[in-house]
């Protein structure tokens, strides 16, 4: 911790800070400059309370030096870790493409989706049975019936299923229905009770970034899951909220190299929700792979015109197939494969 | 709904949109300009799917006209509604000041807090037993024991208690401990399952604005609660996330007059979390009252230096008392009282 | 300057940083913790280049400690300074209200405006002769003719004139027409050549905050003016750009107490541009005075329906008069006057 | 223009709007729904004033339908246009890489830079002689001497020179020194007088996006240049300001496909300023090419450790060469070349 004293701080105030540091079991290091005095606190920073330091007399501000995330930090696992989803490695040289509709609608729609996803060469399938909707009057998902349709469809092609969990009370059901990857949505990134619960199970978790979550908050949300014992975490960038209104969200491509440096865990991207329009998906998906993403979550619907939600952002099966071609070429250009 | 056709849209494409509108039971109104054709869909907009319209051939974009919130809209209740908290009216001429510590720590701390809150002339008391913390390693609140301490302390002054609910599974406990006002925190503003549950009980709810929630999303979150049958909703502006780093959040004072126009429900402000520093609280609290807020949620601690969390944003009992004086004067200046 | 070394930094890398610090004439202060080594550089921080330090081998990051603004910093002038506009003090106990239309249109419109501004009790008058417009096809202001109309109208009531300068080449004209206060608009807050030029004249300058300028950048922009010799600077908060779309900008009320702490110069607020609608102005204006603003810049038009620009945000003369009443009461409530 | 009437609007108020529309030479189209009345104004929207409409009695809000940019709109030039820089086409199948240092320092540094830029296979060279700096005390560029050094160095490899113009008064000098591409920096994107002046010369202009400029504002800024007669405009995305503090700016990759759809003009990307760190540049540069950018502006310095500004974001000559290899492979993967 670094404590910057106010310009007019007295020696007694400096002593007060020193005493506080010692009382908490750390060592101080006082640097007296011509204009300012700076105090470094050496030792376990977590024993100090930033807010307490900032209200000690004479203190201008205090700043943490150590990062607060531990288990998910790359420091603790420099070579990068791979999350195993039923034998499919996320985080290795292969870029995993996860395709499927926004929401589960009918058995037939899911069967057609699974066929298209498999035919395009995707390695996993996505689909929502529980849907977070802005309006209470909008379709909220088929619920448990949706999980059934999904599993039945996905099994025909041996595709692992990826689906969103919104409510802690449904976790047992997700386990019973053998969901392969639990997705935590953007709005729940800091639903701490939900994070704690998925931290207690042994299932891969896709943790989407909150709409306005900083990288540091996102890493701390993952730390909540990891602290419970579940280290099978996959980060998913899905666009952030900014001032721009020409598209739904701004895909934060910079998050990819930055997360790769900060954490050993894999990072995937959802280009469909970021832009919000199907015609933007190819450019964003290509950019994500070129920037080093370990996978993509792409919306596809057998017939977008009939989709029950987000019809405008789903690719057709044909468009997905074409996009897979470009993604393969780009992955190769940077020494990976799809 | 207004549908703007692309410049080069064909008559057949216009017909396609018209057919879609009619198929959904609405009427069309086609305006052909020199450059653009615009189609209005007259009737119940909720029968139309915006995303579907936007992928019909020839459509440039579609825009909703009607607001999606109904119960909470001022249109439905033009004169403004008052939420009754054990006889204390929120939303009337009196500005309600709710004081208390960030978190419940000990029985003694809560007793001292209740004494100070009552002495300053506040009408309700706040305090957190369950704390949403960015880090899994930080103090997470005393839990149920905290509710006990809180109730015991508040009862001595007959102060209604306001406390945050984070987990749906704790709602019964909140009812059993007779919490007077359930607070939904910023991070849970779109925790839809939680909103649905508090919509089913008959308790006043303070709904804090999400860090980057738009006014429209906030109103829709309240609509989730209202749709369940609970109309005792109090909006609480607590600062939004922007690019500025000199303070924690930006208190969005404009939200006050805008909400007052859009909804009939009361609006309060939390100046403590917005700025994040005790020395900013008086200016922000005064501004909020001057802008028309129906109440304030102010952090105070009997001894901020010893506070277990957010020590730097809590007022001392003395500072709270002084601030109450200014707030009284400002309320009077605009024809209200504290 | 504080330099945090990477966890795996070698002793030789620490030495490299120490050498760099000494080579630039500063002294180092090395703190070796269990996990991290931190180096403080004591002396004139401006001699060090942050970017250079950050690319030295083994460096994790470097952070400035000293503030980069000097002349405008409160440290250099603790008691607060007053800017004198033809005898009217900005920054003292009186809150100065500056009223007038968005743009100068005709002599008659300016005469009526000046009459209304004076009748309402405002102390200065605003109006734009040169208008920054998003579209090249929109009305760009009357130019020099506008300055003439403005001066003629204002003189009848001895009101100092406040008007915006957009182009360095017009500064001589502004001096010739004896403009009393030069306004630098939000879009030009970092037009450094313009700042340098107004720094060379002896005229009060209102420096509006850029749409997404941080407090630190704003202070540095003022420092540009001050470094040229002109210390008559008035900060004007006018709303910042955020994700919210329900109103034009978010008035950043927190900027008032924060600026008051960081700089000795006066701070005023423009509630008209912030919200963008006349009906929002009273709430925002009242909040600004309650939060400690030294003045307000309020748009008023003798007949808003006929205004050539921003018709929807101008108050009528009657509305301005009513608002002045509330502002007087609020100012008194906090020990000031209007 | 679409005008939505308030729910309680009277027939007389609807008539008032209709009259206003007719008075301005447009035709109305009234749609009366069960809940709301909507009025379409058919004809030349620019004859209507949005703000005027919004203050007519009974009006809830008005919305433009037509886009305000004309010359730069893709509608007017569907096949995409190519900007010619001394025979080098920007906007065709070749992706143009523009390399060079942040600022011009010495003749030797520029010669070494030019050698490295040419050796890496870049087609143009960048370098700043006039530098917009946040602090008035920082190095402000070599000025005219810098232009001389730059031209001398670039000529040895016949590289067109790209450099930033900050002040209208320097435009003649830029013409005299035969600058090949005038760059307008982010902070000057809405310096309208500067835009008007570069609109009068016949030189390619790179228009950088303002830090918080919307796509629509950016297009309007280009329209200012185009309206003056200069259609040789190249858009340059360079990162936007958001809430994220882990990196300088967020590269808005979505802007590429969106601009490509809205305008016929070429779009390039500056990955160096966006992230602010050299180690982020490869991922961002690769993403930009994969997303369809027509070129890149990349900072390179013969010896970053000695750079006078932004040392931490410059690539070394070796790193630039390596990056060019990846960019070539990615360009090929999507059917283009570098």
H-E string of chain A: EHEEHEEEEHEHEHEHEHEHEHHEH
CATH hierarchy, class of the largest domain in chain A = Alpha Beta
Largest sheet of chain A, if any?
A: 8 strands, parallel, barrel
Low-confidence stretches of chain A: none
Number of domains of chain A: 2
The CATH architecture name of the largest domain in chain A reads Alpha-Beta Barrel
Structural class by SSE content of chain A? alpha/beta
Oligomerization state of this entry?
Answer: homotetramer
How many helical stretches of chain A? 11
Instruction: Tell how many strands the DSSP assignment of chain A holds.
Output: 14
Strand order of the largest sheet of chain A: 7-8-9-10-11-12-13-14
Domain DAHP synthetase I/KDSA (chains A, B, C, D): 92-324
Organism (chains A, B, C, D): Andreprevotia lacus DSM 23236
Protein name (chains A, B, C, D): 3-deoxy-D-arabinoheptulosonate-7-phosphate synthase
GO biological process, one term (chains A, B, C, D): aromatic amino acid family biosynthetic process
């Amino acid at each position: 911790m670094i404590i910057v004293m106010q310009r007019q701080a007295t020696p007694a105030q400096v002593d007060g800070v020193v005493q506080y540091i010692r009382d908490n079991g750390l060592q101080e290091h006082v640097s007296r400059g011509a204009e300012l005095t700076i105090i470094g606190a050496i030792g376990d920073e977590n024993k100090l309370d930033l807010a307490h330091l900032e209200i000690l007399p004479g203190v201008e501000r205090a700043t943490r030096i150590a990062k607060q995330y531990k288990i998910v930090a790359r420091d603790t696992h420099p070579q990068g870790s791979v999350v195993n989803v039923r034998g499919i490695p996320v985080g290795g040289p292969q870029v995993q493409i996860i395709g499927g509709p926004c929401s589960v609608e009918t058995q037939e729609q899911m069967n057609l989706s699974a066929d298209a996803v498999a035919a395009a060469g995707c390695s996993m399938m996505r689909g929502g049975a529980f849907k977070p909707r802005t309006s209470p009057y909008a379709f909220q998902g088929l619920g448990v019936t949706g999980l059934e349709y999904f599993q039945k469809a996905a099994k025909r092609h041996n595709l692992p299923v990826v689906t969103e969990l919104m409510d802690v009370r449904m976790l047992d059901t997700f386990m019973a229905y053998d969901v392969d990857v639990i997705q935590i949505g953007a709005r729940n990134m800091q639903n701490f009770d939900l994070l704690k619960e998925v931290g207690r199970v042994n299932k891969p978790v896709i943790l989407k970034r909150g709409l306005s979550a900083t990288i540091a908050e996102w890493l701390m949300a993952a730390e909540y899951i990891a602290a419970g014992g579940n280290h099978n975490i996959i980060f998913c960038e899905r666009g952030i909220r900014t001032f721009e209104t020409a598209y739904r969200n701004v895909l934060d491509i910079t998050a990819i190299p930055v997360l790769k440096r900060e954490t050993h865990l894999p990072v995937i991207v959802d280009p469909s929700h970021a832009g919000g329009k199907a015609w933007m998906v190819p450019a964003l998906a290509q950019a994500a792979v070129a920037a080093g993403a370990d996978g993509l979550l792409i919306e596809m619907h057998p017939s977008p015109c009939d989709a029950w939600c987000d019809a405008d952002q789903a690719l057709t099966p044909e468009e997905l197939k074409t996009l897979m071609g470009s993604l393969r070429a780009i992955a190769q250009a940077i020494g990976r494969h799809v």
